[in-house]
Design brief:
The chain is an alpha+beta fold. The protein has a single domain, classed as Arc Repressor Mutant, subunit A (Orthogonal Bundle), CATH 1.10.10. It is 37% helix and 17% strand. The strands form two sheets. A three-stranded antiparallel beta sheet has the order 1-3-2. Strands 5-4-6 form a three-stranded mixed beta sheet, with no helix packed on it. Helix 1 packs across helix 2. The chain starts with a helix and ends with a helix.
Length: 149
């Protein structure tokens, strides 16, 4: 049986003991469709039928349940991206590189990179970490090359 996005998102909400509401399904659909992390203001501009407080509560609930994770852009704005299936309630496994493009300001989650082991001094017990890189994304590199030629 082929699972549509809606049934996949409904199953995700059910797994995390969240009610299957229209606004929650819309937010999941928007975040899953993006290849970059997305800020609350960006979501508000697209989801104009969901008020700011409701969207804030949805994002908070999703983050607490391990459905999405929060990453900050170069301006300090919180952006949200879908978590991997390894994330759990109150314990994220989003230990991947977050790439901030200095031109378009998009934040990319680069899950496919193998990161080195984190060797901390005795007495330190990590519960997670965030790794950022800044530079120019492929899209902006391509646009710059077109302008230069």
């Amino acid at each position: 049986m082929i699972q549509t996005s809606d049934t996949k998102f409904e199953a995700l909400l059910e797994k995390h003991h969240l009610k299957k509401t229209g606004p929650r399904l819309k937010v999941l659909s928007m975040l899953a469709a993006k290849n970059v992390a997305t800020s609350q203001p960006d979501l508000e501009s697209v989801l104009d039928d969901i008020d700011r407080v409701t969207l804030y509560r949805i994002l908070n609930a999703f983050e607490e349940k391990g459905i999405i994770h929060k990453v900050f852009d170069l301006n300090g704005t919180a952006n949200y991206a879908m978590c991997s299936s390894n994330c759990e309630e109150n314990h994220h496994h989003d230990e991947h590189l977050h790439f901030n493009c200095t031109i378009c300001n998009n934040v990319y989650c680069l899950d496919e990179l193998n990161l080195p082991a984190l060797n901390l001094p005795n007495g330190f017990k990590p519960t997670g970490f965030t790794l950022y890189a800044t530079g120019v994304c492929p899209k902006c590199n391509k646009l710059a090359a077109k302008k230069a030629s």
